[in-house]
Write a structure and sequence with these properties.
There is one protein chain. By secondary structure, this protein is an alpha/beta fold. The protein is built from five helices and 14 strands. Helix content is 16%, strand content 23%. It has a six-stranded mixed beta sheet with strand order 10-11-9-12-13-14, sandwiched between helices. Strands 3-1-8-5-6 form a five-stranded mixed beta sheet, with no helix packed on it. Helix 4 links the parallel strand 13 and strand 14.
């Protein structure tokens, strides 16, 4: 399935039905009077969070979502049927914004949560509403009103408690594959991962915690360079970040600074989010090199780095122990 996390759509509430002008003409009702009924209200457009959806792919092929119109009124003061509300299902974690102003209309997180994004128009009034002592036979009626129509920007932000970040080829996909049942594409070249991957890691209590492997950041990602800018939004909801640094890189300290700079530039409080600094691929460096790099990373970041080898399964228990204690599990 193609991963789409942004979409632009138009939502339109149904038009209200028209009222009518009618008069009672019954054999035993000599002064029947006006009996025109009101029009029905137009249907609303409602977004609903659905846990079975993982992407906004459906909105790539359909852009206009319109609710049903209300029916016109009938004689004998019969009100027309109201239009059915249109329920549009979106993945959990979807934000809806007005496309032009950027105003946040709502954030759908919980399954079944609903947000009305376009209200239907009111139905018109029949001539029965205009009966008075001065006008015993009104012929006035009103038309139904148009429903609201808005352009929307939908943005999906993955619901994960732990986000794994780092430069391309730092071993993020390998780590999530080892810790969970996720099976992302893994290769020995950068930018293998083109979309975020989710995996469920079991807690000691038996419950599951969602980990997200975020595609690699590069210098300038917060300004739109590379893939990182497209997926930085997916770590906004995380409670904890695992920052992977490649121990076999030419300059691990420089790699750390690149990602730190991008988190600061992007904002949204990411740089202040609880974060574990993890030196991966320990098998590619000698013991002396590891000690030197760990000391440099600790001096620069103020954090106590962990050393692991995701591919060889070393240090993973210590990493998970630190994750659970940070999350308060």
């Amino acid at each position: 399935m193609q991963f789409i996390d942004q979409a632009r759509i138009t939502v339109r509430g149904g038009r209200g039905g028209d009222g009518i002008a009618a008069f009672r003409r019954e054999k035993y009702v000599p002064a029947g009077g006006p009996s025109g009924g009101d029009g029905g209200h137009g249907g609303h457009v409602v977004l609903q969070a659905d846990s079975n959806l993982q992407t906004l792919l459906d909105f790539k092929y359909k852009r206009l979502f319109a609710a049903d119109d209300g029916r016109r009124g009938g004689p004998n003061k019969c009100t027309g049927a109201s239009g059915r509300q249109l329920v549009v299902k979106v993945p959990c974690g979807t934000e809806a914004r007005h496309l032009t102003t950027g105003i946040l209309l709502g954030d759908l997180i919980e399954p079944g949560q609903q947000l009305t994004v376009a209200f239907g128009g009111r139905g018109g009034l029949g001539n029965a509403h205009y009966l008075s002592n001065r006008n015993r036979a009104p012929e006035k009626f009103t038309e139904g009103r148009d429903g609201e129509e808005w352009p929307l920007q939908l943005e999906l932000k993955l619901l994960a408690e732990v986000g794994i970040i780092g430069l391309p080829n730092a071993g993020k996909s390998t780590l999530i594959a080892v810790l969970s049942a996720a099976r992302p594409k893994i290769a020995d070249y950068p930018f293998t991962t083109l979309i975020p991957n989710l995996g469920v890691v079991r807690r000691p209590s038996g419950d599951g915690t969602v980990f997200a492997d975020i595609p690699g950041l590069i210098a300038g990602a917060a300004q739109g360079a590379g893939l990182g800018h497209d997926f930085l939004r997916h770590i906004e909801r995380t409670r904890l970040l695992i920052h992977l640094v490649d121990a076999g890189a030419e300059d691990p300290v420089g790699d750390l600074r690149v990602v730190e700079k991008e988190l600061i530039a992007y904002g949204h409080g990411l740089v202040d989010r609880p974060r574990l600094l993890v030196l991966n691929k320990q098998e590619l460096a000698s013991e002396d090199q590891l000690q030197r790099v760990v000391a440099e990373l600790e001096a620069i970041s103020g954090r106590d780095p962990l050393t692991i080898s995701a591919v060889m399964g070393r240090g993973l228990d210590s990493l998970l122990g630190r994750v659970w204690s940070t999350l308060g599990v």
